[in-house]
Design goal:
heterodimer; A: about 120 residues; alpha+beta; Glutaredoxin; four-stranded mixed beta sheet; globular; B: alpha+beta; GMP Synthetase, Chain A, domain 3
Chain lengths: ~120, ~80
């Protein structure tokens, strides 16, 4: 299990934005994973996707790594941001924009505004 | 294996006795739930910390790939 955690730590520190999800960003296998991947794709954020369904050790390891029981899990600059509900709330409140700005992650502000306009 | 709304509420209530708790069955299948928990103890915590506290109360039901509680959309708030 420690190797899975090492692998996770390596992944979240070597990529600015990482989404641990069920499926891939091109083919999500769960509605919650799909929603977060969809937000990031729409906002033009470059991110690494890790399919937990492809590796049982990573699937269990990521829950212990973050002390968070569910997938998806979003990491920005090595820091756990939240799951589907938190990311959704942060997208609609503009907190996600602020986080990306503070961490120097490029994203399309107009697209983020469009999400808010459509879900206001 | 499905779970009842009052089971979810009881588990949350055990950890947050004074909280305002609303449980909604999202799909009507006893499998996809939404819970809103409003509690004073969340003050000073960020969302991740608030929701970790609620998940901790539900841990027994969420454990494993086939836990009784498959999907829970969680919202946590501080009373106004």
């Amino acid at each position: 299990m420690s190797t899975a955690k090492d692998q996770i730590r390596q992944t979240v520190t070597s990529n600015d934005v990482v989404l641990f999800m069920k499926g891939t960003k091109m083919m999500p296998q769960c509605g919650f994973s799909s929603r977060v991947a969809g937000v990031l794709n729409f906002m033009g954020v470059e991110f690494a996707d890790v399919d937990v369904l492809a590796d049982a050790d990573i699937r269990q390891g990521i829950k212990e790594f973050s002390d968070w029981p569910t997938i998806p899990q979003l990491y920005v600059k090595g820091e756990f941001v939240g799951g589907c509900d938190i990311v959704t709330e942060m997208t609609l409140s503009g907190e996600l924009d602020a986080l990306f700005e503070a961490k120097g992650v490029a994203f399309d502000k107009a697209a983020a505004d469009k999400i808010r306009a459509a879900n206001g | 294996m499905a779970i009842e709304a009052r089971d979810i509420e009881t588990l949350i209530r055990a950890r947050f006795p004074a909280a305002r708790i609303t449980i909604t069955d999202l799909a009507g299948d006893g499998n996809h739930w939404a819970a809103e928990v409003i509690d004073e103890s969340f003050r000073g915590m960020n969302r991740v910390q608030q929701q970790r506290a609620v998940y901790a109360a539900l841990q027994a039901k969420m454990a494993g790939a086939h836990g009784e509680l498959h999907a829970l959309a969680l919202t946590t708030k501080i009373p106004e």
